[in-house]
């Protein structure tokens, strides 16, 4: 049985030379059938399994992951957590996630290292300032914390920004969310895995779904590289690979897969204690707890499943970064990588039943689903448990592409995509 | 940096090209097109992992063309001028 983490357990292990720690989650053999199956061991899949057990008492659940848990986008993102969205539907969704994040370390008994260091979206012209004021108003009306920053406010939180008179991207102000920040991405996956496993969920890695079992027009299970596994309710949270699985289930999705890159510098002393995003340069940046400068930017230009990213986009990102922070010109880059993200025309996720009854979707988070993990998990769990939408997930159903009720968050979601 | 073959200009830097969507996605015709057919045309995509046929534009010469490409290896398999055949 997994052990509860506490100051006392840390102290004891210190005395015992750290030799008594147990596996954080069990690795059982797959059973022939479950009450529910979740495909994809990223943050959304693991959270779904956890909330199925915790909120709905359904613990005969398997999470099936083709590689290792958190090896997809959940372990590849730039860890920004925020809820500075524009439309009420998005505010409900990301607001729920943000509130759950604030209690997550305690709920999971696992430190996800949420650090609410604040985030500023810069405005580089008076026109952008007007849009900024509109966004701040919308956020405040929707009950989300937001402040309109003056250039001096920006200077206070990010003094190393390029405020020179000849700067190519001068600062006119910004949109500030003080509760925004970062969380340790691996810890979110591992924390949910450990908590779900404690509640009886089977987490099965190296288990790829290769096909669906369809009987009487309903999804009744999956074929995997570790045999056939049956369940009458199946949820799928496979991010950039949603179209691949949808094709096996016989339908198409409004998704294009693209690579999204990030990179980190060598670690340096604390120099930037907030998250800064510039729509002008298309770059956002923060400093990790280890001291690395974590750099993210826009999508790659070419539909792709190649999990590596391409050079022109990286060059654009680095050029933009140096416009913002010339001081970073001395840094060495340590690592660059990419994840495959599922981009939807209105930049909002898809949550709901798929065209194949019994198979439910959680996908389309594109470049921004890390911050949404607790909400995505809660909502997919409710769909699997009850077959019905929560009021928060209803607007995100796949049917919006036929009814035309799109939730176009392209601007609110921050980075161009 | 990758080179893409424009059927008119030859191999050029990838940054000169713009992706224009999946080939063969034909706009529905007529006045009573069912909603699902519109949704399909406007939004639904095959988005294959592997070989795919796509419309691209070479921004320097403004010509559209069909490129066959592998989305995993990024290898270009063919590149042909756009004609009625892409509608197939
Ligand atoms: C570089 C980068 C930066 C980002 N920055 C941010 C950020 O700062 N803030 C933010 O909120 N979001 C960010 N995102 C987006 C965020 O990471 C994703 O939206 C989120 O992690 C999606 O979680 P997921 O659980 O849906 O997917 P994933 O974590 O990708 O998990 C899906 C899992 O499904 C598995 N899978 C796929 N196919 C199969 C199959 N056939 N059988 C079994 N398993 C399968 C995969 O192996 C994978 O582990 C970023 C993404 C990238 C790539
Ligand atoms: Zn050309």
UniProtKB/TrEMBL annotation, chain A:
<keyword id="KW-0963">Cytoplasm</keyword>
<dbReference type="InterPro" id="IPR001763">
    <property type="entry name" value="Rhodanese-like_dom"/>
</dbReference>
<keyword id="KW-0285">Flavoprotein</keyword>
<comment type="similarity">
    <text>Belongs to the SoxB family.</text>
</comment>
<keyword id="KW-0274">FAD</keyword>
<keyword id="KW-0288">FMN</keyword>
<dbReference type="InterPro" id="IPR006278">
    <property type="entry name" value="SoxB"/>
</dbReference>
<protein>
    <recommendedName>
        <fullName>Sarcosine oxidase subunit beta</fullName>
        <ecNumber>1.5.3.24</ecNumber>
    </recommendedName>
</protein>
<keyword id="KW-0560">Oxidoreductase</keyword>
<dbReference type="InterPro" id="IPR006076">
    <property type="entry name" value="FAD-dep_OxRdtase"/>
</dbReference>
<feature type="domain" description="Rhodanese">
    <location>
        <begin position="37"/>
        <end position="80"/>
    </location>
</feature>
<dbReference type="InterPro" id="IPR036188">
    <property type="entry name" value="FAD/NAD-bd_sf"/>
</dbReference>
<dbReference type="Pfam" id="PF01266">
    <property type="entry name" value="DAO"/>
</dbReference>
<keyword id="KW-0547">Nucleotide-binding</keyword>
TrEMBL record, chain B:
<dbReference type="Pfam" id="PF04267">
    <property type="entry name" value="SoxD"/>
</dbReference>
<dbReference type="InterPro" id="IPR038561">
    <property type="entry name" value="SoxD_sf"/>
</dbReference>
<protein>
    <submittedName>
        <fullName>Sarcosine oxidase subunit delta</fullName>
    </submittedName>
</protein>
<dbReference type="InterPro" id="IPR006279">
    <property type="entry name" value="SoxD"/>
</dbReference>
């Amino acid at each position: 049985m997994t052990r509860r983490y506490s100051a006392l357990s840390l102290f004891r292990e210190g005395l015992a030379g750290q030799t008594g720690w147990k596996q954080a989650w069990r690795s059982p053999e797959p059973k022939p059938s479950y009450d529910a199956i979740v495909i994809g061991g990223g943050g959304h899949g693991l959270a779904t399994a956890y909330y199925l057990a915790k909120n709905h008492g359904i613990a005969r659940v398997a999470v099936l992951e083709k590689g290792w848990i958190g090896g997809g986008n959940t372990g590849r993102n730039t860890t920004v957590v925020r809820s500075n969205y524009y439309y009420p539907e998005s505010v409900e969704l990301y607001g729920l996630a943000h509130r759950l994040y604030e209690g997550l370390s305690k709920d999971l008994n696992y430190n996800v290292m949420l650090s609410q260091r604040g985030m500023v979206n810069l405005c580089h012209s008076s026109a952008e300032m007007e849009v900024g004021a509109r966004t701040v108003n919308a956020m405040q009306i929707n009950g989300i914390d937001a402040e309109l920053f003056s250039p001096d406010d920006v200077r206070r939180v990010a003094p190393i920004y390029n405020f020179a008179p000849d700067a190519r991207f001068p600062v006119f102000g910004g949109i500030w969310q003080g509760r925004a920040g970062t969380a340790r991405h691996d810890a979110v996956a591992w924390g949910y895995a450990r908590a779900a496993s404690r509640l009886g969920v089977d987490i099965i890695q190296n288990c790829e779904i290769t096909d669906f079992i369809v009987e009487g027009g309903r999804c009744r299970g999956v074929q995997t590289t570790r045999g056939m596994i049956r369940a009458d309710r199946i949820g799928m949270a496979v991010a950039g690979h949603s179209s691949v699985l949808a094709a096996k289930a016989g339908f198409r999705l409004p998704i294009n897969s693209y690579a999204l890159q990030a990179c980190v510098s060598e670690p340096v002393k604390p120099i930037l204690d907030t998250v800064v995003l510039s729509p002008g340069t298309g770059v956002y940046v923060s400093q990790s707890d280890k001291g690395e400068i974590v750099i993210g930017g826009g999508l790659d230009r070419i539909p792709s499943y190649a999990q590596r990213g391409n050079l022109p986009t990286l060059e654009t990102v680095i050029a933009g970064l140096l416009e913002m922070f010339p001081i970073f010109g001395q840094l060495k880059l340590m690592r660059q990588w990419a994840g495959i993200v599922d981009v939807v025309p209105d930049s909002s996720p898809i949550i709901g039943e798929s065209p194949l009854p019994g198979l439910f979707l959680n996908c389309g988070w594109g470049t921004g689903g890390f911050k949404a993990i607790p909400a995505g998990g809660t909502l997919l769990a409710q769909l699997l448990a009850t077959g019905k939408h929560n009021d928060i997930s209803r607007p995100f159903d796949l049917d919006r592409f036929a009814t035309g009720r799109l939730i176009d968050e392209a601007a609110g979601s921050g980075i161009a995509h | 940096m990758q080179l893409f073959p424009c059927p008119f200009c030859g191999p050029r830097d990838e940054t000169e090209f713009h992706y224009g969507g999946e080939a063969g996605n034909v706009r529905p015709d007529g006045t009573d097109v069912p909603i699902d057919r519109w949704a399909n045309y406007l939004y639904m995509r095959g988005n294959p992992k592997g070989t795919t046929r796509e419309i691209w534009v070479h921004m320097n010469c403004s010509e559209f063309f069909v490129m066959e490409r592998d989305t995993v290896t990024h290898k270009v398999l063919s590149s042909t001028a756009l004609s009625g055949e892409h509608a197939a």
